């Protein structure tokens, strides 16, 4: 792996870690142990402390804790875990290493019975314990908690958490927003390695590619510390894979299910399984772990759509709209294989792998209505109707591996890790649009506002009379690779004034994004001698369109047969095929230093990170006036300092105050950086459209302040204030009339703006009902509400005069909320969950006129899940997704002006899960 970097960065990081000298107590021995429940499940997030030494540890995913180099003596070992009674025992430290017997916790509600961390309560308990003991502001979804909702992918699982919401595609969660910030402003990592993004123009990772079955947990860090790589303003989504050592013994689980969508009469199967085993190796006991998870799901569903695309003249009416009917089949395949080797007590070697493939086959039958003159609802007139077909199979894949080691020697610990991720998106030869046209002199219009319904003569719905106009075919491929290597070094100092942890490290990464597109335009079929020009020659069955009538479908096989009979090379659209091809290479060198100090009820983390980036972007420039192509290459570099201070104060064992200042960094999207340049002339006026490789990264100053109160039995009340000041906000602008584009009529590109502000509050409450002595003690209530607001200024020139207006940040909802009601016994588990987000700015339609801004309407979806324990280790479940049949609606300026309306129907799932508890 070729990595270009300056050796001075590593020397700087290591020197800082080693240069601090402190007087430590006389250290004699290490003490290790594990915390478990009654089923021997390992409990992550438990707090283990030694009050006499003012030392505190939080158990990891494997339930373990480790106190290093303790002085000889007799101490008290205390354990605190939400849902369990506090526990303490005498600890005698001599001059030899100790491995304590597993500590099994008792139930908080019954001081005799041991706790069992299973079901809804157990899942929430695991998440809340990890959040309570986190250094910063952390939100966690464990694999158990994900299983309490009918969520098929990572994105949908995260929508249940405070401050998070999702952007959907065809009704399925796809991208995650953190605190109202768009998905491209958040980083996604897999065991510390940043995941590559499959889509050509984006950095945002489509999390619907990854099945939730493959994971141990997903954590969202909302505060950034210096040891975290830059790449986010809102938060970092950390996907953690399972390890065999996360279980106390061999483990397996298998799931089979079948689903059905209301809009499709087809069955959607799913099967998944997890197995882990701990083995002896090299004469040592229980030192080698293997964990394997696999998942396959096929979902067949449909959606029905009508949209104007913003084609409104508010004074005269609607100019154009389209009816769309989708038939969709999606397949998800995921595999994760993880290996761990832990010889001795201070050595850890590990391999983490992930492969996930998402295949989306989509056929869209459409009716495009081009009105000769704008019309209001109820009026009719002249129009061109176009029957349009789009058909494609798109496959996205994400793969990742992380190979590393952690080594401990006395108070020193170091970690060396190499990681790589690859993502691609492949859409082979596909029908971009096959259009059949017919003109109508009168009788065409529409009714309604939110749902536009076509008014047309009866013959508009027949295949006869429509003539083949053109067929556009496409073939696109995008790939992104990310490779990195990092080294971290830390040392802990135990003093009478508290415990100090110094940590330093360096990371070097290379990212490469390539995009390749080929377009063919087949037209003038009569001149080519094609006899079959009527839609009747290509017609299939009737379109089952629930928002009205569309008539017969266009048969995709017949269209493929037609274009394959022609010489493909004669129909290449050379400009479109070359102008969207590009490659962007980024090399990033980073180093950091941080210190973590703890004493009594205080914890303070401070430090700084430095990142230096070199970027090389290559694309094409096309001059339509002279009909010439030329290469366009831009190189640049930049360095960034990113300081942070994070503080935590324990008011009591139950109440915590958190405060943080951190700095974030997000690099521009690849579409924005693309060096493509298209120069044209229209009516003797110059027009240009181009990317901007000179864009600066977005940076932010982040402030957080909040308080959390945790109930001993199970529950939390929290409030978190946050404010983000964002510099170099990026938006699409027209530079015509200024600088080198003073003589242009149009010069569309992306530019850096000034400042944008985002602020809000997160409220979260979880409560396990208790104390009634009846069925009410089986209830669990979980709710959260996030209130946000934002402002950003965008600018444009008109006749040499600079104008500006204020907008909200795209994708930022003022309100996002979740409410779930659970009921659970030893046999039955029921959960009803509602997810809500208010309307938000989806896109700036016309930079000069806010009336054409596009807003996504508020959205509330209700889901239901139920489980019946047939026998220990076997559960039958029934889920309903989108129980309230919530559609998606977007409007132009004001709600009556449809931009897009789409409905998906309900999905029903029946499944069986077997686990060796």
UniProtKB/TrEMBL annotation:
PROSITE patterns found in the cross-reference section: PROKAR_LIPOPROTEIN, TONB_DEPENDENT_REC_3
UniProt domain TonB-dependent receptor-like beta-barrel: residue ranges: 426-883
Keyword NADP: no
The keyword Transport appears for this protein: yes
Membrane topology label: Multi-pass membrane protein
Domain TonB-dependent receptor plug: residue ranges: 131-236
Signal peptide from the UniProt entry: 1-27
Chief location category: membrane
CDD domains the record matches: ligand_gated_channel (cd01347)
Domain of life, per lineage: Bacteria
Pfam families named among the record's database cross-references: CarboxypepD_reg, Plug, TonB_dep_Rec_b-barrel
Compartment(s) where it occurs, according to its Swiss-Prot or TrEMBL record: Cell outer membrane
Assigned keywords, A-Z: Cell outer membrane, Membrane, Receptor, Signal, TonB box, Transmembrane, Transmembrane beta strand, Transport
PANTHER family from the UniProt entry: PLUG DOMAIN-CONTAINING PROTEIN (PTHR40980), TONB-DEPENDENT RECEPTOR-LIKE BETA-BARREL DOMAIN-CONTAINING PROTEIN (PTHR40980:SF4)
Family: Belongs to the TonB-dependent receptor family.
Protein name: TonB-dependent receptor
